[in-house]
Design a protein that fits this description.
Layout: E1 8-12, E2 18-22, E3 25-26, E4 36-37, H1 40-52, H2 67-79, H3 83-91, E5 101-102, H4 106-127, E6 134-135, H5 144-155, H6 159-172, H7 175-183, H8 188-195, H9 197-206, H10 210-234
Parallel strand pairs: 5-6
Antiparallel strand pairs: 1-2, 2-3, 2-4
Helix pairs in contact: 2-6, 3-5, 3-6, 4-7, 6-7, 6-10, 7-8, 8-10
């Protein structure tokens, strides 16, 4: 789309919270509702990305230029009306969490244990959710009480936070890593490093795959976005 505004600014709404105005008119979601947030810093950051998008009036832009807007729009339009659906979808990742599956290769399995077990121990201690570890790819059944505890941990997040987890958890393939990122236990870059231990290990033996590297770079960007969005929502 072409940029049709000169100025994007964040404002306080009379009814509470914050909004973004484009040349004095509210920035609206595709469904027509005004974009709104309780976080002043998030509104300022969204205004900044709209001010930069397309560079100047008449310039070309896409929604890729306004990623914070996309996440807040997801939270407002899709998550907030029915948080239970997002909670259920994210909690399901606990059933097959990446960190619970160790390789048959002894060297890789030792690396996985050293790097991943502290996060599983954290989930057990903080969320009361000990998970069973297995070797190979055959599914392992996790304790129902642990899965319920992880579901409760996800459900404790607000709509905006759930939207960020909705980006992070699928990118990581791990609910435990996603919850650790949300809690500030690990940073986005560290979460990403832990999630790709297997790939990096294999690349050292067999060489790099350009497509896999590109996919990893995209995932790293998405995780950094989720981390930034969480920080702004909570500021």
């Amino acid at each position: 789309m072409k940029r049709f505004w000169d100025n994007a600014v964040a404002v306080t709404r009379p009814e509470g919270g914050h909004a973004v105005l484009l040349d004095g008119r509210p920035l609206r979601l595709p469904g027509g509702k005004p974009l709104a947030t309780a976080s002043g810093p998030l509104a300022e950051a969204i205004a900044a990305e709209w001010q930069a998008a397309g560079e100047a009036k008449g310039g070309e832009m896409t929604m890729e230029h306004v990623p914070l807007t996309r996440l807040l729009g997801t939270a407002q339009d899709r998550v907030a009306p029915d948080p239970a659906a997002m909670v259920a979808g994210l909690a399901k990742y606990g059933e097959t969490d990446l960190l619970c599956y160790r390789a048959d290769d002894p060297a890789l399995a030792e690396l996985q244990s050293r790097e991943w077990q502290p996060l599983l121990d954290w989930a057990a201690a903080v969320h009361g959710a000990p998970l069973t570890v297995t070797a190979g790819l055959m599914p392992v059944t996790q304790p129902e009480a642990s899965l319920a505890a992880l579901r409760d941990a996800v459900a404790a997040h607000r709509a905006e936070e759930l939207a960020a987890l909705g980006v992070a958890v699928p990118s990581l393939g791990s609910l435990v890593l996603g919850l650790a990122l949300s809690a500030g236990r690990i940073a986005a870059a560290e979460a990403h490093r832990l999630a790709v231990i297997d790939e990096v290990f294999q690349e050292r033996r067999w060489g790099e795959d350009p497509e896999r590297l590109e996919r990893r770079a995209r995932a790293a960007q998405e995780l950094a976005l989720a981390e930034r969005f969480l920080a702004l929502v909570r500021a």
